[in-house]
Amino acid sequence: MFTGIVEAVGRVVSRERGREGVRIGIDAPALDLRDVAVGDSISVAGCCLTVVDLAAPLLHFDVSDETLACTTGFAVHSGVNLECALRLSDRLGGHIMSGHVDGVGEVVLFEPPGDAQAGHRRLEVRVPAPLARYIAAKGSVAVDGVSLTTNTVADARFTVNLIPHTLAVTTLGTLTPGDRVNIEVDLIARYVERLHGAP
Fold this sequence. Notes:
Blueprint: E1 8-17, E2 21-27, E3 41-44, E4 47-55, E5 58-64, H1 65-69, E6 79-84, E7 103-111, E8 121-126, H2 129-132, E9 140-143, E10 146-149, E11 152-154, E12 157-162, H3 164-169, E13 180-185, H4 187-196
Antiparallel strand pairs: 1-2, 1-6, 2-5, 3-4, 3-6, 4-5, 7-8, 7-13, 8-12, 9-10, 9-13, 11-12
């Protein structure tokens, strides 16, 4: 489990094709790896991946074709948000996330908000229509592994305001319209729907 509070930004430095997916190498000099071992889970751009090789600051992960089909952001040279798995003693600063990406959204707008707060940005993302029902105004959503609070929701789009700190310590500050981003909807919304439909 994760919280969406990014610990470091890494960079994809290698991508090698295997029989059923790819092995990616990520350079993560800013991530504290003292408590990380092979077999541990790390959120990479919002996707829960297992460390298969570790030679600090380099991490390797195997990414299956199924994961590649429903995510984005693992191209060589791309920056990726990184978060180690949650400990039971950690603060829950964001929201509960599984690292199971629900779909890929598209950046529609990335601009200063109407009130022109210095350094702030408004982000608007279009999501696949089946995911829109799980996103509510003032609710939680994860974009590339970053826990965010939605401002508005209309049809299959939502907006969030990004503060300068978030822009500085995650990859979100480099977004431009047309970019694709990993989306994870609120876990609670999925369970509510399941319970609502139960006999």
